[in-house]
């Protein structure tokens, strides 16, 4: 049962549940802002991501406190992983009952934490609420909808999220437009993304396209991976391609021979500072990542998103993002590399100003009074 002391007081903590790479980047400014207010916090790592390059490097790069606990859940099918997450989180929240659970984004750790907290009567705050791709073939879309349904506080990163939540019957007094904490992290570290130093260290060419792909729809089916590999080889015929490979697609891209092209450079997943430096120095980015669509919007780097939809339309209306299919990737990239498209289409999305963590901390501490 929830304790009666307010979250963040000495008796009861605000528990941040993080587990996967993008969670760490989003949580860092919230944890930092709450620390500045003297709140009592607990960082719960589920262990959904566990390789040093998928997890610990972010804690080092971002100065996040070492997690108070690592549940070590690891990988599995959706049911197996979500079930293991729920069992681990139920034990954690029972032994160390928080006054509030803060969850981030749309990964399995997010929805598992929301379900467990809600059933234990612990209030839930969702950072990055209300994003919708309207595509239930994406596991993340299901996670987002369920998490928002269970959340007492919905922190929206962009205005259209408010409309989506209203359409689903979420009471407006639960919803707060706070901007984007992932962009807080980006802006707070701008002078640490050294594209020239990274280029020298990794011996990268002056002009390159950075690529990152990990969505099941792109990397799980070997035939699809073979088709994407052929397209990326065509891209490499005109510009070097540098791709830090997410573990999900590694075996499939290796089997398809992605690295066999002399102008394709495959890397291990990069730490945050190196990855954003890679992005910053790129002529263009090819991705299916949610976070990378947002970061390129602020960095002004053209972003080609290999997906039929995006839950982040502000990155198109206000940023450098465009959706591409596998068949129009090469032609679109040609245009981008020739400078035949605008790099930035609009103004920065509202409140993507580096102060979202503070706004979230302010609502969390006010809400608990
Ligand atoms: C998860 C999220 C996705 C997010 C992505 C960020 C879900 C449903 N998906 O996808 O929304 O965009 O994280 O990167 O939560 N693996 C390793 N080492 C690791 C972690 C994973 O080798 O440290 C491998 C395992 O083979 C694992 C596979 O990657 O089975 C997939 O990992 P998982 O966490 O299930 O999903 P992601 O594809 O990483
Ligand atoms: N990122 C990173 N190293 C990489 C690839 C991505 O540090 O090799 C960062 C990226 O800058 C962003 C976050 O990881 O901050 C996005 O995570 P990912 O693409 O895995 O997940 P998504 O945003 O699609 O959920």
Structural summary, described in words:
The protein has helices at residues 21-36, 56-62, 78-95, 108-120, 139-150, 159-167, 181-188, 195-202, 216-219, 222-238, 247-256, 272-280, 290-299, 314-317, 329-337, 356-367; strands spanning 14-18, 41-45, 69-70, 100-104, 124-129, 153-156, 175-177, 208-212, 240-244, 264-267, 284-287, 303-305, 321-323. With 369 residues, it is of the alpha/beta class. Strands 3-2-1-4-5-6-7 form a 7-stranded parallel beta sheet, sandwiched between helices. The protein has a 6-stranded parallel beta sheet with strand order 10-9-8-11-12-13, sandwiched between helices. Helix 14 links the parallel strand 12 and strand 13. The protein is globular, with a radius of gyration of 20 Å. The mean pLDDT is 95. The protein binds uridine-diphosphate-N-acetylglucosamine (UD1) and uridine-5'-diphosphate.
Topology:
Elements: E1 14-18, H1 21-36, E2 41-45, H2 56-62, E3 69-70, H3 78-95, E4 100-104, H4 108-120, E5 124-129, H5 139-150, E6 153-156, H6 159-167, E7 175-177, H7 181-188, H8 195-202, E8 208-212, H9 216-219, H10 222-238, E9 240-244, H11 247-256, E10 264-267, H12 272-280, E11 284-287, H13 290-299, E12 303-305, H14 314-317, E13 321-323, H15 329-337, H16 356-367
Parallel strand pairs: 1-2, 1-4, 2-3, 4-5, 5-6, 6-7, 8-9, 8-11, 9-10, 11-12, 12-13
Helix pairs in contact: 1-7, 1-16, 3-4, 4-5, 8-12, 10-11, 10-15
The chain binds uridine-diphosphate-N-acetylglucosamine and uridine-5'-diphosphate (UDP).
